[in-house]
Design goal:
5 helices; 0% strand
Amino acid sequence: MKTISLIARLLLGLIFLVFGLNGFLNFIPMPSPTGVAGQYMGALFVSHYLVAVFALQLAAGILLLANRFVPIALVLLGPVLVNILLFHVTMAPAGLPMAVIVTALWVTVFFSVRKAFAGIFVARVAT
C-alpha cells in the first residue's frame, strides 16, 4: 500500500505541477471550449480568477512532490478538484475520465494520510 500511495502522490503532484505551470507559461496549448463551457472559462480568464487556481495547483503540486505538508496540499486541491469534476460533468464531458482519474489519485493519497484529518471528523465537540 505504501508503494501505491507513493506513486499516487507523485503522479498527483506531477499533474498539478505541470498544469499549474501551464497556466502561467502556456507550454501545452489547449483549444478554447465552445458553448457554455467557453463562456465560463472566458469569465474565469477575464476576471483573473484562474491565476489563483493555477497558483494553488502549482503550490500543492510542489508540496506533494516534495512530500512536505501533504495534508495541506490535499486541502488546497480538494476544492479545485470539485470544480474540475463539476465543470466536466456539467459543461465539458470529454475531459471527465481524466478528472475521475485525478480524483481517484487524490482519494488514494488522502487515504494514506487520513490520520492527519482525524480531528475534523468528530461528530460533537466537547465544550
